[in-house]
Structure to design on (128 residues):
């Protein structure tokens, strides 16, 4: 078992909107993934990666609106809302990448899945 940092990065028209970092403990090595988001696969993609996306979807009578999470008072052109009835190409790319790391003992002991944490410690020789 190994610990990995998970980087979930959202791009709009080549501009990086933001990145959300998480941690993962798993047996197999995770694979990097790149998803080209279109209006057709937007709902499925958001259902799959919703927590990790740097945007939200709003449903209105005219159509859907994609609203990005930015920290700017004056957002740049690629950070503004995208409306389905005005734009045919969504232009969002969602990338997921992983990097292995070695956690401290306190991080392992605070891990939410106790069984996986114990298996990780046993593999490294931490027996009772």
């Amino acid at each position: 078992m190994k610990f990995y940092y998970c980087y979930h990065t959202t791009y709009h028209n080549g501009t990086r909107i933001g990145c959300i970092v998480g941690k993962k403990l798993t047996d197999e090595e995770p694979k990097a993934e790149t998803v080209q988001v279109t209006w057709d696969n937007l709902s499925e993609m958001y259902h799959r990666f919703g927590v990790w996306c740097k945007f939200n979807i709003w449903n209105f009578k005219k159509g859907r609106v994609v609203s990005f999470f930015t920290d700017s008072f004056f957002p740049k052109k690629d950070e503004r809302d995208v409306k389905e009835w005005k734009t045919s190409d969504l232009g969002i790319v969602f990338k997921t990448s992983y990097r292995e790391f070695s956690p401290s003992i306190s991080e392992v002991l605070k891990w939410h899945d106790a069984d996986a944490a114990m298996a990780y410690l046993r593999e490294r020789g931490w027996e009772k």
